[in-house]
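Lab meeting notes turned into a lecture example. A postdoc, R.K., suggested we walk through two folding results consecutively so the class can see how the record format repeats. The first protein's sequence and structure tokens come next.
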Amino acid sequence: MVPSAGFLRGVRMDLETTFFKLALALGLGLLMGLQRQRVDSRLAGIRTFPLIALFGALMALTVPAFGPWLVAAGMLALALLLLIANLIKLRQPDANPGMTSEVAVLLTYGLGAYLVVGHTEAAVALGGVSVLLLYLKAPMHRIVGAMSDRDVTAVMQFALVTLVVLPVLPDRSFGPYEVLNPFRIWLMVVLIVTINLAGFVARKLAAAQTGALLGGIVGGLVSSTATTVSYARRSRGEAGGSAQAAGAALATLVIVVASAMSLLRVMVEVAVVAPRHFAAIGAPLGALLGWMALLSLLAWRHGRRQKAETLPEGGNPAELKPALLFGALYALVILAVAFAKDRFGDAGLYPVALLSGLTDVDAITLSTANLANAGRIEADVGARLVLLAVLANLAFKGGCAMVLGSSALRARIALYFGLALAGGVAILLLWR
């Protein structure tokens, strides 16, 4: 078989580049060998893995002279050696049937060859990830062992939402105003599910920890609204007197910190969807986050001695039904934004932001960031829309806390959320 001209051009290189590629292959082989030597692998260790990587690189370097079949022949010879080694190993009484080292050997050979004929950065990144996977065996086994059936279900449903549904959706616009793109709508669903899943994992990791500050941080990642409702109800269950005051101080700290963390979540969404306009849209949000951080510090001074109990359990963040509901809500917000802009211009977007932000700030944030990224609205208009939605959401959560909480909590929430909203309105009116 005659190698193609393009393939030959990919493997022809000067002497300096050749030595650089060989050095990278040697380095990756040493990393793999170091990890395998540490776990006392009987198959290959600190010397064998570098040799295997260099062997793969050498086979790739000989392609211009002998053809690409030599790389496959090298892989076949290595697989034959592994087969012989395993047959010998299986005769021993304490033989380990695991295949990790065998796969690592073949991967190291492939990395050595790909370093020569492929993208150097990709090969190095793949090698680094492979070494980390080998090194993190014990922690990964502990995490999997500690996972419940519900946790595994969350992961599998996340795979369904991301890997199964997303690729089959059409990437073109439909409907009124040509704004309903199924692929891009579901892409926003995947983003929100990913953020929720990260909060879910954080809550699981923090389950054994205590402290109101941590409760607020993780609660804000999971759901600041659910955290607000949960701790407001708890404050009402406290007995009167000092116990109720202590419960109100704890609930206030958790609720204020969770609301501050929800701002960070919004900024992450803007950074992912509209990175070019993050400075313009994220700056006023960052100012409000700084103000909320000061209020959180003040609340911490009064509630730091209190001990948070358990975080709100919450549902599976990757369930298909909530994902579909968010997708429908996001599509509805997109239509509302398109209709308002078409009929009333930029001024018509503010009522939409105000109303949609009352219960869910994610949908209006993502739709606004997408509009700014597409150049359909100015970045400063997008910043005001998102900030208005955030303030509406703050007012909604404050109202929930005052309705559901104790009298002691109502007084504290009125103070802290009043200051938060006042600061937010000042930023909204004065920011240039």
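The second example is placed directly after the first for contrast:
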Amino acid sequence: MFWRILWRLLYASRGRLALAVFAVASGAAVSAALLNLDLDATDKLTREFRVLGANVVISAAQNGDAAATLDTEEMNQIEQLHLPEVVAATPYLYLPAQAEAVGNHAAVIVAGTSLDEAARMNSWWKVEGDWVSARDNRSDCMIGEQAASRLGLIPGQSVKIHYAGREATLRVAGIVTAGSSEDSQMFIGLPLAQALAGLEARASLIQVMARGSAPEIEDVIRRLSIALPGLQVRPLRQLAEAEGRLLERIRGLLFGTVLLILVLTSLGVLAAMAGLALERRRDVGLMKALGGSVRKIMRFFLAEATAIGFAGGIFGFIAGMALSEWIGERVFSVSIAPRLVVLPATLALMVLVSLAGALPLRLLGRVRPSDILRGE
């Protein structure tokens, strides 16, 4: 009997209830989209941050010597750890050299490195020309756009570098744009840089790119510090802090918007239910006259509000997944995957909002059967 009467009530007020379902579905769509963005977009943005170059640097203990170097054999110890979070690691040897090309001279920082690992670590760089892929290439180099501009270089031309009485002539394979200090550097194979400096098997530092959450990165640093005693292992705090601030602001904006949407949705349901309460006065009076208790009568209306919340939540979830995909592509430039965990969260929120919006129906408990029977 309960379900039969409930169906009659729903069918009799289908027009007004459809508006309430639409209001709930609209709020559910936006809420589900933003919750899905928080779960998926922030995770992908974290991974995007992890490909913006190295976030851990290993260097020799300074001890007052600014030119201290480390043994490149330390790379073997890093590889032996088999850390799944470490995506790439490469040594760098920096030399303040003089460069000469097409009649121009300029001071340039030469960075000797494993060029194949540097390519993996800095895949976001823009390259005009080709990237030198051979690790020990001694004939080609990469050069930053600012250094190339000062020397008047384009891909395919030759450049001569001088350091400590030694020199080498290289072909410019590509010009890189990194938007940072790398734009004024020249990148050559590590063996050639060591030969120019007379520092066999030495490097200025080792750059490591590790993926994972902040605690996972801290764990990588701890394990590297244990495996490499006597060396300094430190994170690039600026990158980590910038990531944390950005993600915190995005999360705050998303949850603030969800809260506002829930309030507005609750007001929409409240308006629909207030009108429904006026329509149901006669029905409630008749139920009371036939001996129905206020508790039993309110069960019908609470079930009605719950049904509105479920219906609106399901329709809103479907629309919200499409909306989150659109927002992800347009705003964050990432593909957003639907998270099924958002569905129960959306349904729970919408049911609570619908029940909160059904508060005007409590006024029906004050309806007196005698007034209804007299036609008042």
